Amino acid sequence: MSRFIHHHTIHWHENRDRPFDDRIIAEEPLSIRIEGHPYSVIMRTPGEEMAHVAGFCLAEGIVDSPDDIAALAFCDDTDTNVVTVTLTEARRAGAIHHLDRRGFVSQTSCGLCGKEIVDDLRQEIDPIDSAVVLDIAEAYQCLESLSKHQSLRDATLAAHGAALFTSDFELLSLAEDVGRHNALDKAIGKLFIERQLKEASLLVLSSRISYELVQKAARARLPVILAMSRPTSLAVQLATQLNITLACIDKKGGLDLFCGNQRLISRS
User: Fold this and answer.
1) pLDDT confidence of 57, banded at 50, 70, 90?
2) 28, 111, 160, 246: which has the fewest C-beta neighbours closer than 10 Å?
3) Is 110 in the active site?
4) CA of 200: how far to CAs of 78, 181, 191, 255, in Å?
């Protein structure tokens, strides 16, 4: 299934019409079934479904290790919009609480106040104790150059991107999707499946930073998040509680640092 579709579009400018063949980002539902039961339906850009679901399951707390997954497969060979997850017997008992929540943490309209959300997540996720220190100028370059790696964005102008780098600024994983949450799940899921997630120290996002993205980063044990847009107040509150560094591009140039400043230093 293609990540974008061709569409006949009309461009209007200064009272003149011009038809052209446009490319529009694809959006399809992805149904995630866990232990034979529906768990969640996510609207996403088709592609990298296995990585997407693996990253999603890690973020939700359904799995902690690739070893917790007994099987990860499409419902059948032709339907890539349904992925089934089978947990190991050992993990199944430990995941009952998470399965009963039906995506509780990932819902933005669950009716809880900010303090309750942060308190719940803080109880579930240990603060990150990473002592990694990054050169702020090089980290900034990773953020500024993110769009150069986004081929789907170039084609459609409608894709979010998430990239993971080592502490030496080596690009480990990149994913794009119509949804910013999905892009991050995919980028994390690739490394999670390959057992390389521990090598990642820096997360770069094309979007704003919401508390859900901080949650996903915390589950993946990522200590530093840089983004193109500013964080929400709840994101800063949660990142502070979990000892995660947050920064974004300032419209006047440079970076705005919101918490965890000790991990970004100038070495020049």
Assistant:
1) very high
2) 111
3) yes
4) 34, 18, 9, 21
